[in-house]
Amino acid sequence: MPYHTFKCSECIPERAMHAVIKGPGEDLTSCLPLGYLNTIPGTISERGCAFCGAKHVIGAPMKDVIHLCHGPVGCTYDTWHTKRYISDNNNFQLKYAWATDMKEKHVVFGAEKLLKQNIIDCFKAFPHIKRMSIYQTCTSALIGDDINAVAQKVMAEMPDVDIFVCNAPGFGGPSQSGGHHKINIAWVDQKVGTFEPEITSKYVINYVGDYNIQGDVEIMVDYFRRMGIQVLSTFTGNGSYDDLRGMHLAHLNVLECARSSEYICNELRKRYGIPRLDIDGFGFEPLSVSLMKVAMFFGLEKEAKVIIDEETARWKPELDWYAKRLKGKKVCLWPGGSKLWHWAHVIEEEMGVKVVSVYSKFGHQGDFEKGVARCSEGALAIDDPNELEGLEAMEMLKPDIILTGVRPGEVAKKARIPYLNIHAYHNGPYKGFEGWVRLARDLYNAIYSPIHQLSGVDISKDEIPTDTGFLTRRLISDMNISKDETTPSSERPYTGEYDIVSKLRGKTYQSSPIQLGSQQQLDGTV
């Protein structure tokens, strides 16, 4: 097996089986990292917890809902406000965060009374909102609060409200993916089949596994509607609570993110006989194939072809323009789950870049199977990397850009490597034909940004030292000199500032202009 051991992880031998380099002629029988296992102690993992996966990723994008976190206020930081899951109701759920704010006394004496009062207070504060989701945390789970019982009491007292309970504490799985599973099953168990939405078309689907990052859902729903298909519900981006209660009436579940939402599609198939069709909204060719697959299910091939031809004619020339300029640029594809394999091949084929590494913090074995199979030879695949491993990979691979989230992305910036936020997007949406061109544009802008390239200019050895204009450093050096006036200057330890400060003592300190670098340096960098 072509396992790769990072130098920073040599003291943790178990990590060796979580990274591989795909060599010539190797396939999944010999080149597959371990995935979705319990975090190895001491690795300083950056994974999210199951609570994060349930609330942050899947639950809270529902737009007309109060999303209440039953736990300490610190858990409420992990809301979906750090992502751009927008909605068409003036982004109600983006403007507020709700928490019961459990304290030590509640851990000792219980927090069910606190929870009930918080539920009532929330509905009073937002009288136009009649739906609520309550999310269990580690703290409320460990003390045994019966959230379901409290919710039932409130609904009995307030008949016009409806409450969903998600029992997915942080310890409920190896990573956030454990929370994905729990909320999928909980929604089917508690809410599906409890509401009858209006059916207005012969062709009805649930669009599942899209969270409307900067409007992704709106792009895809527009394609379906142009084909004559009714989108009964979207799970859960820009999704309505009551529409999602009526998922059982759809004719087909169209699944986008198989990592986060395949569970609910499988349950709907078992319980209601609704078939599942997996699609891909990223890239011209995968999207075209996906739209045609959905069309063939309903016999709407002509309608789909019109859309595909129109959109391709409009946007393909722009994509080709960027592809010529991105050809050969090295990319580390470090996403969450499904983008690992949704993007691994298509960005190479349609944008000309070279994927030199893929990783996932919570992807399952199946995600790595598909991702590694679609990668080129020489690609480094990593499961659950930490910051040090990420830095070491950057040094080894020397990519031109990283496609990842904010946390590893900001680390990449410190290493003077640009990144694109593909969790919340820089300038999305990225789905659809226009969205794919938008991603190519963001790649182009990031790689060729002259401002970012200036960060690589070394000005530490310029003719004029760059720190001579900073008052604080001068004052510190001045104080050091005054304490040691009797020592000849030739015998003092050199700090690089003594001579400058000596000349400036007794004068007014003024900032000096900062020299960015020689013209030769700039010409060689920009």
Fold and architecture overview:
The protein is α/β, with parallel strands linked by helices and about 525 residues long. It has 4 domains: about 5-45 and about 315-455, Rossmann fold; about 50-190, 3-Layer(aba) Sandwich (Rossmann fold); about 205-310, Rossmann fold, CATH 3.40.50.1980; about 470-525, no CATH class. The protein has 22 helices and 14 strands. It has helices spanning about 50-60, 90-95, 105-110, 110-125, 140, 145-155, 175-190, 215-225, 240-245, 260-270, 285-300, 300-325, 340, 345-350, 365-375, 385-395, 405-415, 430-445, 450-455, 470-480, 500-505, 520-525, and strands spanning about 20, 65-70, 100, 130-135, 160-165, 205-210, 230-235, 250-255, 275-280, 330-335, 355-360, 380-385, 400-405, 420. Strand 11 (about 355-360), helix 15 and strand 12 (about 380-385) form a beta-alpha-beta unit. Residues about 490-525 have low confidence and may be disordered. It catalyses: N2 + 8 reduced [2Fe-2S]-[ferredoxin] + 16 ATP + 16 H2O = H2 + 8 oxidized [2Fe-2S]-[ferredoxin] + 2 NH4(+) + 16 ADP + 16 phosphate + 6 H(+). Its cofactor is [7Fe-Mo-9S-C-homocitryl] cluster; [8Fe-7S] cluster.
Task: Give a brief outline of the structure.
The protein has 22 helices and 14 strands. The protein is of the alpha/beta class and 526 residues long. Helix 4 crosses helix 6, helix 12 packs parallel to helix 18 and helix 20 crosses helix 21 (498-504).
